[in-house]
From TrEMBL:
This is CBS domain-containing protein. The keyword Metal-binding does not apply. Keywords: CBS domain, Repeat. The keyword Ribosomal protein does not apply. InterPro entries: CBS_dom (IPR000644), CBS_dom_sf (IPR046342), CBS_domain-containing (IPR051462). It holds the Pfam family CBS. Residues 7-65, 67-122, 130-187, 226-277 form the CBS domain.
Length: 277
C-alpha cells in the first residue's frame, strides 16, 4: 500500500507573505492544530505552522517567522511502512506528501491507523503499549495555566482530575482555542530624535505605536471548558478495539481507567507502533 492511496488530497493551507492574523483565522475556522504553509506565488511548500507556535510567540506578527521550515516529507510512491517509520522515529503526527516540489497531500497517523485496522486483527492488550506516566491537571486550574502545562508537557490533551483525584474530563489545545478571543493590544514606544549636539532636539521624542493581535484564553477554569464525555478502556482491552474507537469517534487518545481512577493513556501513535511491529 502506497502513501498516495490513503493520503488526504483536499489540503487546507495558508500562504506567505502573511501575518499571524491569517493563521489565527484559519485555525479557528478549520479547528486544526497545524497547517502547511505555501509560497503564494509558486505554491511551493516552505513548512508547517502550529497552533502552539502562535501561543509561544505572542509578539511575532509575520507568518514567515512562525513557520517550522525543518520538516520531513514523503512522496506519494513511498510505502505506508516508510511513512509510519518516519512518524514514529521523529515523533510527528503528519507528513506533507510532496512530488516534484509540489504539495500533493497530507498523510497523518490516523490515515495509516485506519488502513492498518482494516487489514489486521491485533489482540495485544493496551497494557503493553499505554503510557503509564500521564501529566494531568486539576479541574479548578485557571485556563491560562493549563495551556502552559500543555506546552511544557508537550502533550496535545491532558486528563482532568477532581478534588478526589478521580477522572472528570479532558482538556486540549483545541478546547482552549475554541473559547479564546482574538484581542488587539496597542503598545507605545518612545524614539528619541536629534543628537546630543542639537540643542533643540535633546528633549524631542517620537511616539511609535505597535499594534498586535493575539489569542487570549478567557479567565475561566479548566472545569468550565473541558470535555466531560470521555472514551475510556480498561488495560485489558485489545489495541485494535482502541484503534476502532479512535477512528469512529475522531479522537487521538483514549484514557485507560479502573473505575474512576486513571491508570494511563493510549494515543494513536502508541497504537500505530503496536500495530506495525
Amino acid at each position: 500500500m502506497k502513501v498516495g492511496d490513503v493520503m488526504t488530497e483536499d489540503i487546507q493551507a495558508i500562504t506567505v507573505p502573511g501575518n499571524r492574523d491569517d493563521a489565527i483565522e484559519s485555525f479557528k475556522k478549520l479547528e486544526v492544530s497545524a497547517l502547511p504553509v505555501l509560497k503564494k506565488d509558486t505554491g511551493e511548500l516552505i513548512g508547517l505552522v502550529r497552533l502552539r507556535d502562535l501561543f509561544e510567540n505572542p509578539d511575532e506578527n509575520q507568518l514567515a517567522m512562525l513557520v517550522n521550515r525543518d520538516i520531513i516529507t514523503v512522496s506519494p510512491d513511498q510505502s505506508l511502512e516508510d511513512a509510519a517509520r518516519l512518524m514514529l522515529l521523529n515523533k510527528i503526527r503528519r507528513l506533507p506528501v510532496v512530488k516534484n516540489g509540489e504539495l500533493n497531500g497530507i498523510i497523518t497517523v490516523r490515515d495509516i491507523l485506519a488502513r492498518v485496522i482494516l487489514e489486521k486483527e491485533v489482540e495485544t492488550p493496551v497494557s503493553e503499549c499505554m503510557q503509564r506516566r500521564v501529566p494531568s491537571v486539576w479541574q479548578n486550574t485557571p485556563l491560562n495555566v493549563a495551556l502552559e502545562i500543555l506546552h511544557l508537557s508537550g502533550e496535545r490533551a491532558l486528563p482532568v482530575l477532581d478534588n478526589n483525584a478521580e477522572l472528570s474530563g479532558m482538556i486540549g489545545d483545541e478546547d482552549i482555542i475554541e473559547v479564546s478571543e482574538v484581542k488587539e493590544e496597542e503598545k507605545m514606544g518612545l524614539l528619541r530624535g536629534g543628537s546630543e549636539t542639537d540643542k533643540w532636539a535633546w528633549d524631542s521624542e517620537d511616539r511609535i505605536y505597535i499594534t498586535k493581535r493575539s489569542l487570549k484564553p478567557p479567565e475561566k477554569t479548566v472545569k468550565e471548558v473541558m470535555t466531560k464525555e470521555l472514551l475510556t478502556v480498561t488495560k485489558r482491552a485489545p489495541v485494535n478495539k482502541c484503534a476502532r474507537l479512535m477512528e469512529e469517534n475522531n479522537v487521538n487518545q483514549i484514557l485507560v481507567t479502573a473505575g474512576k481512577r486513571l491508570e494511563g493513556m493510549v494515543s494513536d501513535e502508541d497504537l500505530l507502533k503496536a500495530l506495525t511491529e
